[in-house]
Design goal:
The complex is a heterodimer of chains A (362) and B (901). Chain A is mostly beta strands and 362 residues long. Chain A is 7% helix and 49% strand. Chain A folds into 2 domains: 132 residues, Immunoglobulin-like; 168 residues, no CATH class. In chain A, the strands form 2 sheets. Chain A has an 18-stranded mixed sheet that branches. Chain A has a 3-stranded antiparallel sheet with strand order 12-13-17, with no helix packed on it. Chain A starts with a helix and ends in a 9-residue tail after the last strand. Chain B is 8% helix and 52% strand. Chain B has 8 helices and 58 strands. Classes of the chains: A mainly beta (362), B mainly beta (901). Chains A and B meet through helix 1, strand 1, strand 2, strand 4 and strand 13 of A and helix 7, helix 8, strand 51, strand 52 and strand 56 of B.
């Protein structure tokens, strides 16, 4: 009894720390153009997204339409990007393909006449992905249960790759991992939908840490992905409908597919992601670093006071995609290589009634 | 018997007093080597000096020696000392004839011949007046400190008298016999009989419990004792004051209590250290028995590392810092352990909700006292009982141990030994584990060469270690553990010379050696892919010579002038990189490097540090004071967080990082009211900082092999007005302090990379415009006491996200200029009730309960404002919002039982 009492008192002491939403009155907030540009050595159309930054307490997206966007290759041509959606400017693969060793400059002229220009970005040679391994284990994920955060263990796989930085004069890499779960949904009524869901294991930009691992061969963590039907909601469910009746939903797993990309960056881009990670990695604890302003590789050359945020990334990409085949009662999954998948072409989640969508992975 | 003991105490007290403070009096006759002369020589001197004849038996004083300064005292005081040696008294025979009689003149009572009496006034004047003015002082017989608010009651007089801030009282009472009762909570009640003949003095000692002095045993003179009387911007807590401090989680916390004084602030409930007049926490030199402590906080600041039971004195210098002190730019906090000689073993302790403590003082053969103490928390054990996976894997605990040995080798020599160790750990879900600890030790030998000259030599060592283990179960390959440490060694040789009553000279030499390991990292766990790395250690030698003269020009004007020269050598073994001239330092601008061998001088710094303090007594109750000091600081805590953390790095001044230089000017007006029962002060200060260390945006400080590329130089200013009012006596006591202040800084580089806010002045992290503290205590009676503390602060500066955007589905915030905004204002009310158990004199076990409520009205004071992405792995965009983190968001009850036996 005494122990319980003391425990209660201690809890009242230990758990008094808390947080609550805070809505300060912000004033004189700057206006900024935001550029998210990526060109790679792949033969495909590349995208430059141009928008306006939002006030912190607002939601939505303000695309920058009607801008002139073009890339200049050092000693080469000038390539114009066309606006295919508001604020989305893409290249024509028939006209433009980035070449290894070349340097590129992005220029944007917005409707208000301001001209923004990136620094010169060199495309370094591609480095192919090394072998990707996985280890089956469980990971801990939070879930909100009645307002309190509860953690639960999920079976999955830890993916690793080796990264050989020996004699690498440009050891700057970014990785991305996307797991796609595909499943078929059937209802009581004869209705079939083809569903998918993307999973991104990274809370922040997955870049190699050259500070601690600057030379040699290193195992790089590509992230932990749950490989578990329950985690993705792929199991038979009962759903109560408006009439009060319940219907059964039969969800059946089609496959788990995971796609990895390895981008070889230049140092300037690497440093930019690294600076963003300081914000993204912050654990929202009392000892987080003092926040600061991250500036990318673009400037407004017509108005030095005009603020431009974002990055123009030029990188070489290596892409590997696998189908995950669980091996029951064993410590790992097998990874079956399949044709490279570009997860960027798949929306985060969705379902297609009756017919398989174009992005369905076979 | 009681009167006999009282007499002995009086003698010892007098000897103690003169031994400590009067030892520098003018030398006028033959003195032995140690400065003492035979007692009958004193008599001869008195006869010569005052043209009187003193009759006595020389055998009484055979083998008795006294300080020659006793002869310089007023005649009646000198004779009192002589008489007390034999337990006798002095009688006046004629205008020029006096006799020392071996029996106390306490047999004047016609009513009871056997009763002992103290005689007040001159018997020759008996009957000339109906009443007499009795003046006196009540002092702590153990320490010599005056007791403020003691109650003095004369029989037959309804009114009782209370002592003022100097422990003095004044009573107009009828001549004749009286019983005098003196009382004060926590002290033995003293009752004595007096016979009042005419106007006279009555000095009374009181003792805490059974503490008694039975011989002259103290030879050391603390430097502090000289300064606190004349300086401004000095705050002192003695044993009594510490007892009356507001409780912090049921304990008397000296360092936390300091933050309730004007000009001293903390970052809130959490956060290591404290801030003085806009200075960061590393600018405070916290000395524990003359050895610096490099982290003063347990549980990240919820409580401080010093066991309150062991402390006898704590003095904070905010300005006008005497030349004997240096090393840190903003303040000196000197904490002394209990130095009293005790007769019986004494045990003190406390049992609280968070931790418990125990200390024991053991006297050995009257010359040696051993004090041992320790505290430990049990939150770890309790967390393990909680059926929550994360909480059961969490931990938060601390322990500390202290040992102090005081040995009076002789009347001239004293040796003290001190050791201290503390450990802290804090873990969240077993993923982020912090641990840190202090280890301190010192040895001090003090020697009195003569009545004028005193010297002490001390050696100290202090080490600090901090560890951090990061182990995210989803990213095992990145799991790592880090370690950084600091080792400090000191040697101090200080002298005090008092050629006469006008001058107090201090001089000496100090040396401090630093060995700092900025950091090393190693993998944590078998899956970790982190490679081990160790940043080379830094070594430095700081040294200083100083001299000061505290002198009294006349009854109104006193001054202290001091000069300290400090030097610093940054020593090898070291690799120093050279950078392109005119370009910001970065890895890309390195030209070459130079290798220095172990012990080789890499860079020297140094400078003169003048100190001046001036005091002008306008009248008895008011004074005007002025001070100026410059201090160079050669070691700085570098931190890229807004709150100091246990794993922050200490950095020595080197080729690129110049020493921090702080100049401070302060002016103050001090006035006492109502017979010094109320004291008030106004102080205005201005501080100028040169070579403040700041950081580039996104600086990577830990494990940087060229940390100079991450640091930038800045300058700073702090200025403010401090108002302070204190009521010392009565049932209601306490103080009100208010500080209006500003603290700003700016970078000074021409290169945008090394600028913050485009070199414009911006608020420092510690800038707070208003700071109000009301601290009050009310004694209902001897058993019950109520305490209340209200604190109000303007919110701290904060950098907030103003706009947001998205890059590759990650939502990014773009922050305002540094410290553009303010957090919400901070205010909090704490209440405590203490109940003292048996107050009986003879009762061995004495204890009291303290029940307190922290944050009575449950205000959710912002500790920090942070931006958080609430992102799930399926929600690629994520949501983000600003949050306010508060530490104590509701009333928090605590209780502690404290005891002593």
């Amino acid at each position: 009894m005494i122990t319980r009492f003391l425990t209660y008192l201690l809890l009242s002491f230990m758990l008094f720390s808390c947080r609550e939403a805070y809505h300060p009155e912000l004033y004189d907030a700057p206006k900024a153009l935001v550029v998210e540009g990526l060109i790679t050595d792949e033969l495909r159309s590349h995208t430059i997204k141009v928008s306006r930054a939002l006030p912190f307490d607002s939601v939505g997206l303000i695309p920058e339409t009607g801008a002139e966007v073009f890339i200049a290759e050092k000693g080469g041509g000038l390539y114009t990007f066309d606006e295919v959606k508001p604020g989305k400017y893409v290249s024509n693969p028939a006209k433009f393909r980035a070449r290894t060793g070349s340097a590129y400059t992005l220029t944007i002229r917005t409707k208000d006449g301001k001209v923004y220009k990136s620094s010169e970005q060199t495309l370094f040679p591609r480095k192919e992905f090394s072998e990707i391994t996985n280890t089956r284990r469980t990971g801990k994920y939070p879930n909100t249960d009645g307002g309190e955060i509860v953690y639960f263990n999920v079976p999955g796989s830890q993916f690793m790759t080796s990264l050989d930085l020996t004699s690498d004069t440009n050891p700057y890499y970014r990785f991305s991992s996307i797991l796609v779960s595909q499943f078929v949904m059937e209802r009581d009524t004869p209705k079939i939908s083809y569903c998918w869901q993307k999973f991104n294991p990274d809370d922040y930009f997955n870049i190699n840490d050259i500070k601690y691992n600057s030379s040699g061969v290193f195992q790089h963590d590509l992230g932990f992905c749950p490989v578990d039907c329950v985690f993705y909601g792929i199991y038979t469910k009962e759903l109560r409908v408006a009439s009060g009746a319940t219907i059964k939903i039969f969800n059946t797993l089609d496959k788990f597919v995971i796609s990895f990309k390895q981008y070889r960056l230049n140092k300037e881009t690497y440093e930019y992601y690294k600076s963003l990670n300081k914000q993204l990695e912050a654990k929202q604890q009392i000892f987080d670093p003092i926040p600061f302003q991250s500036i990318g590789n673009l400037k407004c050359i017509s108005d030095p006071d005009a603020l431009v945020l974002g990055i123009f990334e030029v990188s070489a990409v290596s892409n590997r995609t696998f189908r995950i085949n669980p091996l029951p009662q064993q410590d790992s999954f097998t990874l079956q290589p399949i044709d490279p998948l570009d997860p960027d072409t798949i929306v985060n989640s969705g379902k297609s009634p009756f017919v398989k969508p174009k992005t369905w992975i076979y | 018997m009681n009167s006999f003991c009282a007499s002995i105490k009086t003698v010892l007290l007098l000897l103690f007093f003169f031994y400590c403070t009067g030892a520098f009096a003018q030398k006028t006759g033959n003195a032995s080597e140690d400065g003492f002369i035979p007692a009958d020589s004193i008599v001869s001197r008195l006869e010569t000096k005052h043209h009187v004849k003193i009759y006595y038996n020389p055998l009484w004083f055979e083998g008795k020696v006294l300080l020659p300064e006793i002869a310089d005292m007023p005649l009646n005081e000198s004779l009192q000392v002589l008489a007390k040696i034999i337990g006798g008294s002095v009688e006046k025979l004629s205008e020029s004839g006096l006799i020392i009689v071996p029996v106390s003149n306490e047999n004047y009572s016609a009513a009871d011949e056997s009763a002992g009496y103290y005689r007040i006034g001159d018997i020759m004047n008996y009957g000339s007046k109906n009443s007499a003015l009795v003046k006196g002082q009540v002092i702590n017989g153990s320490t010599g400190e005056s007791i403020i608010g003691a109650k003095v009651q004369f029989t037959g007089i309804k009114r009782s008298f209370e002592t003022d801030r100097n422990g003095k009282f004044s009573a107009n009472i009828p001549v004749g016999e009286h019983n005098v009762k003196v009382s004060y909570p926590g002290f033995e009640e003293n009752e004595l009989k007096v016979k009042v003949f005419s106007d006279g003095d009555l000095n009374i000692e009181m003792f805490i419990k059974n503490i008694m002095l039975d011989e002259v045993s103290v030879t050391s003179v603390k430097v502090d004792q000289y300064y606190r009387r004349t300086k401004m911007s000095v705050m002192n807590f003695d044993v009594k004051t510490i007892k009356e401090l507001p409780s912090n989680f049921g304990e008397k916390d000296v360092i936390k209590a300091m933050s309730l004084l004007p000009g001293v602030q903390t970052t809130g409930e959490f956060g290591a250290g404290f801030n003085v007049r806009g200075g960061s926490s590393d600018q405070n030199l916290v000395l524990l028995e003359d050895v610096p402590v490099f982290n003063t906080s347990h549980l990240f600041g919820l409580t401080s590392i010093v066991n309150p039971d062991g402390i006898s004195d704590a003095t904070l210098y905010k300005g006008g810092i005497p030349a004997v002190y240096g090393e840190r730019a903003s303040s000196i906090l000197s904490i002394q352990m209990d130095n009293d000689q005790i007769k019986k073993t004494q045990v003190k302790g406390g049992i609280g909700l968070i931790n418990s403590r125990l200390s024991i003082d053991i006297p050995v053969k009257d010359k040696l006292t051993i004090s041992l103490g320790g505290r430990t928390s049990y939150s770890d054990w309790m967390l393990k009982q909680i059926p929550d996976v994360d909480l059961s894997k969490s931990s938060a605990g601390f322990n500390d141990y202290n040992a102090f040995i005081s040995y009076n080798i002789s009347r001239r020599d004293k040796l003290t030994l001190f050791a201290y160790a503390s450990n802290d750990n804090f873990s969240i879900s077993g993923m982020h584990n912090y641990s840190y600890g202090n280890l301190l030790g010192s040895v001090n030998f003090s020697h009195r060469f003569s009545g004028k000259l005193y010297s002490s030599i001390s050696a100290g060592i202090s080490s600090y270690e901090a560890r951090l283990t990061e182990k995210d179960t989803l990213k095992l390959a990145n799991a790592y553990k880090t370690y950084n440490s600091l080792l400090y060694k000191s040697l101090k040789w200080n002298w005090i010379y008092k050629p006469n009553e006008v001058h107090i000279l201090t001089f000496g030499a100090n040396a401090f050696l630093y060995d700092i390991l900025p950091g090393k990292i190693a993998p944590s766990g078998d899956d970790s892919q982190v490679h081990s790395e160790r940043v080379p250690s830094e070594h430095g030698l700081e040294w200083a010579v100083f001299a000061g003269n505290d002198f009294k020009m006349n009854s109104r004007i006193s001054m202290e002038i001091g000069l300290r020269y400090s030097g610093f050598l940054f020593l090898g073994k070291s690799v120093v990189y050279n950078y392109k001239e005119g370009e910001p330092r970065s890895e890309n601008t390195i030209i070459d490097s130079a290798v220095y061998k172990s012990g080789e001088i890499v860079k020297q710094w140094g400078g003169i540090e003048p100190r001046v303090s001036f005091r002008y007594n306008i009248n008895v109750n008011s004074s005007l004071r002025l001070s100026y000091n410059r201090i160079n600081q050669y070691v700085n805590l570098i931190s890229a967080t807004s709150v100091a953390t246990p794993t922050d790095l200490w950095k020595l001044s080197d080729k690129y990082n110049r020493p921090l230089v702080n100049d401070q000017v302060a002016v103050g007006y001090f006035r006492d009211f109502a017979n010094k029962n109320f004291e008030t002060s106004v102080e205005v200060y201005f501080k100028n900082y040169q070579h403040v260390i700041d950081y580039k945006s996104g600086a990577q400080l830990f494990l940087s092999r060229h940390i100079e590329t991450e640091l930038i130089a800045a300058e700073g200013k702090s200025f403010g007005v401090e108002l302070y009012g204190k009521k010392n006596v009565g049932k209601l006591t306490g103080w009100v302090s208010y500080t209006l202040s500003k603290s700003i800084r700016r970078t000074i580089s021409d290169n945008p990379v090394e600028q913050i806010n485009k070199n414009n002045w911006f608020p420092d992290n510690l800038d707070r415009l208003h700071n109000l503290v009301i601290n009050a205590g009310y004694s209902f009676n001897k058993r019950w006491k109520l305490g209340a503390t209200f604190t109000y602060n303007t919110g701290r500066p904060v950098t907030l996200p103003e706009i947001k955007y998205s890059i590759k589905d990650y939502q990014i915030a773009y922050y305002s200029d540094r410290n553009k905004y303010k957090m919400p204002d901070y205010h909090r009310l704490d209440l405590s009730v203490s109940r003292y158990e048996s107050l009986k004199l003879k009762k061995k076990w004495k204890g009291y309960w303290t029940f307190s409520i922290i944050n009575v009205y449950g205000r959710k004071n912002a500790y920090s404002i942070f931006y958080q992405r609430d992102r799930s792995p399926f929600d690629f965009g994520g949501r983000s919002a600003l949050y306010k983190l508060y530490i104590i968001g509701r009333p928090l009850p605590t209780f502690t039982y404290n005891f002593v036996f």
